[in-house]
Write a structure and sequence with these properties.
mainly alpha
């Protein structure tokens, strides 16, 4: 992967993770780096699911793919936030 590919993944991850965090109500006890990592993973998995289910790739924005990615980011942020909250209670 080239440097531009890595930078693109970070930017897309930040956007997807940020949208996922915005759509989730309440406060999430996770930092920006973890949000970006969740966004990157959600973007990769969402793209893979879109390709496997036959969502057509278009020249513009693939809205179905974006919805999948943001939905996965919401799930990821919620899961990590719950894990972090529970981890803090056991100490």
């Amino acid at each position: 992967m080239s440097i531009s590919g890595i930078i693109s993944a970070i930017i897309v991850g930040a956007i997807i993770g940020g949208l996922g965090r915005l759509l989730l109500p309440g406060r999430q006890p996770i930092g920006i780096v973890l949000t970006v990592l969740i966004g990157i993973v959600a973007a990769l998995i969402g793209t893979a699911i879109a390709q496997k289910t036959g969502v057509a790739t278009t020249r513009g924005i693939d809205w179905i793919e974006v919805v999948l990615q943001v939905g996965l980011a919401v799930i990821g942020v919620a899961a990590v936030a719950a894990w972090r909250r529970n981890r803090g209670r056991t100490r």
